[in-house]
Amino acid sequence: MSDQGEHTSLPDLGACLEVLLFVAAGPVSIAQLAEALDRKPVEIEQALKDLALGYSQRGALAIQWHAGKVQLTTSPQMASLVERFLGMETVSRLSRAGLEALAIIAYRQPITRPGIDAIRGVSSDGVLKSLLSKGLIQEAGRAEGPGRPILYETTSDFLQHFGLASLDELPPFELEELEIEKKDKLLKD
């Protein structure tokens, strides 16, 4: 018999996090994980980063970060395999108007419908209803001011749909560069 005692110790922190994320019904906060494992949030965050790095090298699973919460997901490269296995239809396509509104929300969130309309130059009612029904955006409260309009933000489904681990992976917003290019072109003409 070994001298290890009657109870076995838990596996390493990464394995514990992997199990908790696997059984979680949705995204969970670092604080929830820290409390469940009786660890400091900074330890949890580092272990999650280590897990994410390992997953990115393997290409099957991913750690998704959104709004201060994390979730275990399949990697974007595996989407078609998972869809085929589950008998799902391919991911529904978004219209140009839907992509336009979604980009505005992703970069300016939280933002109101009038704010989106002002940038697009047209009404976004139908587009927002479609994006809400697809679960790509959600209501994030109400803005202060006249009428207290609804604020919209992206969801973790948005990240999954576009294969992003977090909003930090969005390409840099380059509107100013585009405006400078337009001005330069106008000056040359």
Quick description:
Helices cover 50% and strands 14% of the residues. With 189 residues, it is α+β, with helices and mostly antiparallel strands.
Question: Any overview of this molecule?
Answer:
The structure is a single chain. The chain is α+β, with helices and mostly antiparallel strands. Helices cover 50% and strands 14% of the residues. It has helices at 13-23, 30-37, 41-58, 79-86, 96-108, 113-120, 125-133, 156-161, 175-188; strands spanning 28-29, 61-66, 69-74, 111-112, 137-142, 150-154. Strands 1-3-2 form a three-stranded antiparallel sheet. α1 (13-23) crosses α3 (41-58), α2 (30-37) crosses α3 and α5 crosses α7 (125-133). The termini are far apart. The relative contact order is 0.10. Mean pLDDT is 84; it is low at 1-8.
Could you name the key traits of this structure?
about 15% strand; 6 strands; 3-stranded antiparallel sheet; about 190 residues; single chain; globular; alpha+beta
* Percent of residues in helices: 40-55%
* N- and C-termini, Cα separation: 88 Å
User: How many E-type strands?
Assistant: 6
Radius of gyration: 21 Å
Derived structural class = alpha+beta
Mean pLDDT: 84
Total DSSP helices: 9
Taken in chain order, the helices and strands follow as HEHHEEHHEHHEEHH
